[in-house]
Design a protein that fits this description.
Blueprint (H helix, E strand, L loop, with lengths): L3 H13 L2 H7 L4 H15 L4 E3 L2 E3 L1 H27 L5 E7 L1 H18 L3 E7 L2 H9 L5 E5 L7 E9 L1 E4 L3 H10 L9 E5 L5 H5 L12 E5 L2 H9 L4 E5 L13 E4 L5 E8 L6 H15 L12
Helix pairs in contact: 1-2, 1-3, 1-4, 2-3, 5-10
Length: 304
């Protein structure tokens, strides 16, 4: 019978290809790592690794495939068992992009800690694609994502349709000049856009002609915070999701609702048939309440 701890050591060693690093990651001694591999080879009656240089044998490659599936399935099973037992102690792992986590999750997380003090929240700040992969692999219990593509074995629930806004002074003036056929090279607008890893360019680039602007410059920055800061400083126009204009930011630049831009979706993913604990359901309820709060920036209408 193969011991799950031996398999975990084997999978970690196969990934790191180093006995010392494996021992450090698993909080073991290096001799114990070697002992686990030795016992695994004795139980399977085959040689699994070559040490100098390190490589998996053909048998090792085959065992690795099964071991990874087995460990992942056990992790998913334990998550469901915890949910069925209404776990009041332990860890709840959340994955979300930076903009979602900071603007939508902080207050729900505060309420969660008061209601469930025995459950530790862990948050992975990542992209929507990576958040979905963490949930799929059982490394996160819940993922908040934008523009989620349908993907087995995940189940996606929409929380909000996301529309786009332009933050920055002068957009209406630039549009009027474009209609009139006027152009001042010194006054061409700069559109501040996020980098490709957030999908923002892929989502809005096809829609930019709808703004009817004269030729404009584009600058990519690394975060929504940077977008808002540059726009507030009068550098240009930032194209952002509507929920990024959070009331507590105290913005002063003009806000233009881009109602003609195609919207996208914000929601969460869990594994199909995953059992959701009372704690997860309550967290989702608080996130929905946060999303539904009225936003004064979005009631200003178009820039005068």
């Amino acid at each position: 019978m193969l011991d799950i701890h031996w398999l975990q050591t084997f999978v970690t060693l196969a990934r790191l290809q180093h006995f010392g690093q494996t021992a450090t990651e698993l909080h073991m001694t290096q001799p114990n790592v070697s002992l686990h591999i030795k016992r695994l080879e004795q139980a399977t009656r085959v040689r699994l690794i070559e040490r100098s240089p390190f490589r998996l044998t053909q048998a090792g490659e085959r065992l690795l495939q099964s071991a990874e599936r087995t460990i992942a399935e056990l992790q998913l099973c334990q998550s469901d068992l915890n949910a069925l037992n209404q776990l009041s102690q332990g860890t709840l792992a959340i994955a979300a992009s930076d903009i979602i986590s900071r603007l939508l999750l902080i207050q729900p997380f505060q309420r969660f800690k008061r209601e469930f003090p025995g459950i530790d929240l862990t948050l992975s700040n990542t992209t929507s694609d990576q958040a979905a992969e963490l949930v799929k692999a059982g490394k996160a219990d819940l993922g908040f994502v934008m523009a989620q593509k349908r993907s087995e074995p995940l189940f996606y629930t929409e929380l909000q349709q996301v529309t786009w806004c332009a933050l920055g002074h002068g957009l209406a003036r630039w549009q009027a000049r474009a209609v009139a056929g006027e152009s001042d090279p010194l006054d061409e607008p700069t559109l501040i856009l996020l980098g490709h890893d957030t999908r923002t360019r892929a989502l809005i680039d096809p829609s930019l002609p709808l703004l009817a602007l004269p030729p404009c410059r584009i600058m990519e920055v690394g975060s929504v915070d940077a977008q808002l800061d540059w726009a507030e400083a009068g550098f240009g126009v930032a194209i952002v999701p509507d929920f990024a204009l959070h009331p507590r930011l105290n913005l002063t630049a003009s806000v233009t609702s881009l109602s003609d831009f195609p919207g996208t979706s914000l929601g969460y993913v869990v594994r199909q048939n995953q059992v959701l604990s009372r704690a997860i359901k309550q967290l989702l309820h608080w996130v929905e309440e946060e999303i539904q709060k009225p936003n004064p920036y979005l009631t200003r209408g178009m820039e005068p």
